[in-house]
């Protein structure tokens, strides 16, 4: 589903003429199979977010090749990546990233509006998902009127609304208490089991890593180190 072959990445920082190269990922070879839940673990600064940003096209590898769903995406331009992301990825973030001026319903609906889907179909899809994640009764609440756990459920529903085959999650339970974390992890397992969605989850948390089929440990930008 996602394949990285010989991928390295270095950032260039500093003013022109005085640039410094910061190598972050080194020769990453990795395959995430369809239907897998893969946890990416490792210390702060080990390169986890950089790896996720490479998978989702927000940064380009300095070298190596990335394939997603059989397609070589290494050289897609910004516009092509934007379309590719919409068709292939849902995203879940530690800080939920909901739009504060929109209700739970509207937050989940937005990707469908942008895609030009009619209102009847939108309503059916949004309500079905809100029910699936257990917060249909809060559909008309604004994010500020919801608990952290409820907000994260809205963001899970939003990540799934375009029916992506892959969900990328960056510390999805990082802002949740242990009860809400448990609920989120059960939900992820269920979605994986019932819908076959592939998950790649960055985490510091052993609980999260324990629901994964496999953990990839990054250490100093290399796979296989001890986390
Ligand atoms: N845009 C950037 N420019 C320069 N250096 C960067 C940039 N983004 C990340 N880095 C550096 O790359 C290294 C890896 O960062 P990254 O965010 O991928 O680590 P991480 O494992 O996700 O860390 P954390 O767990 O703290 O989020 C760090 O040393 C960081 O300072």
TrEMBL record:
Domain ABC transporter, first and last residues per copy: 2-227
Recorded superkingdom: Bacteria
One MF annotation (Gene Ontology) recorded for this entry: ATP binding
Keyword ATP-binding: yes
SUPFAM superfamilies (alphabetical): P-loop containing nucleoside triphosphate hydrolases (SSF52540)
UniProtKB keywords: ATP-binding, Nucleotide-binding, Transport
Keyword Transferase: no
CDD domains in UniProt: ABC_MJ0796_LolCDE_FtsE (cd03255)
InterPro entries, per database record: AAA+_ATPase, ABC_transporter-like_ATP-bd, ABC_transporter-like_CS, ABC_transpr_LolD-like, MacB-like_ATP-bd, P-loop_NTPase
One GO cellular component, as annotated: plasma membrane
Name of protein: ABC transporter ATP-binding protein
Species name: Paenibacillus soyae
